[in-house]
Amino acid sequence: MKSSRLRHRLAGTAALTVLVGAGALATAPAASAKANLIAINKVALHAPGLQMKVTYSCDPGMNHQLVANVSKISTGHDSSEAAGTIKKDKLICDYADHTVQVNLRVDVGSNFAKGDKVKAAVFYFDDDGFSYARQETAAVL
Fold first, then answer.
1. Is the CB of residue 50 less than 8 Å from the CB of residue 82?
2. 0.85 exceeded by the pTM?
């Protein structure tokens, strides 16, 4: 009789644990699972350099900056590059999606023109020098 009662108590405790766990998952913010994502929307000429439109989301309290790089896809010796950053104090980190225009400065000796094929990359860069959430795409200016 004691073992039967013990089994019922254990079964009841296990069922309660499952219900509590399921309730915690159901009430967790859905957006929190998608933080620290980046997407390149557009790369375009924008005097005096280039501009990249980026959609991002990040964790609250994140201490990173967003970095964008563009390089010309070329078969010759032309290795044109451009880069830009959005500093950590300019990022809105609240799990929601936000869009930002990154102005890229063209490297000395580099040039970009309408119709150029480029490779674009965007990523987060932390204080320790690590990068993550890197996204790349090819585009035509």
1. yes
2. no
